[in-house]
User: Fold this.
Amino acid sequence: MSYVGPEFDPPRPERRESAGRFRRGPVVALVALVSGALLGWAAYAAVGSSGGSGGTGGSAGGPGSSTAAERSATSGTSSPASSSTSGKAPSSASPGDDGKRADTPAASGPLKGKVIVIDPGHNPGNFQHASEINRKVDIGTNWKECDTTGTATNAGYTEARFTLDVAHRLRALLQQQGATVKLTHDDGSPSWGPCVDERARIGNSAHADAAISIHADGSAPGNRGFHVILPASVHSGAADTRPIAAASHELGASVAGNFVRVTGEPPSNYIGDGTGLVTRKDLGGLNLSTVPKVFIECGNMRDSKDAALLTSGAWRQKAAEGISEGIVSFLRG
Assistant:
């Protein structure tokens, strides 16, 4: 997801939740979670990642070149999936499995009865439907393009393929723990989109306990690291995030803290002031949500160090694990 283009997000308004449905922990709890994220990164930087997939791992080719990891990603193959570094139960997917199997939820588990919506940013078919994705939709505060094609590495590994791969892996992990998981789109269905307002509606209609939109940024080389985007408190037109803003901030802080711990990817060095957290009011997928929801930009596809990670199947598994553990912590908190 690049900050120089339109938007690429999830879905929207429908029913309104009462503020009492969502946990609104005190601000001090959010501060503690954010501090935990920074402490986790400091510890990682000091000691290094035991899994060998830290933020400086591997080199990636510049324009026109292709690393082994990028060639593997572009061909659709994946490196063996790594196991969770947190001691929690690993995914039911076997090594090398990208989580595509729509495994049914476990009979029991810590997330039994919970509904989670995963929104893979963009759609691999968007580039074939320029007129459809360029039409404007109402996001409450203004009108924006239905969707965009997203960004890509210099070697051509697209954000849309990355987000769908991580979504599959994340779904497998969450389903193993008993959650009901819904994706806003999957493997060409629909063939483009959905539009950002519809992506929000999917989470709302599912009465999701948590929703997350997965992205990768397209910023300038040298800008690297992840960040989690939180919804601002918005009350304009069809948008009203006031009932879910506090809970969404808790979800985002939990995801950020676990993501940095599991993946070793540093918080963004170009946005968020080193916290890994950014609040925005211009994204329809957040503005129109009536359930706790955040975006995560897992790294910068245009930076060679981040590209080497994003194109690694083993690292994408770690990304899914970090996001999963953040969601689990939020829902069990």
Remarks:
- The beta strands are 115-120, 136-138, 143-145, 180-183, 210-217, 227-231, 235-236, 239-240, 277-280, 293-300.
- The CA atoms of residues 279 and 306 lie 23 Å apart.
- Residues 2-31, 40-101 have pLDDT under 50 and may be disordered.
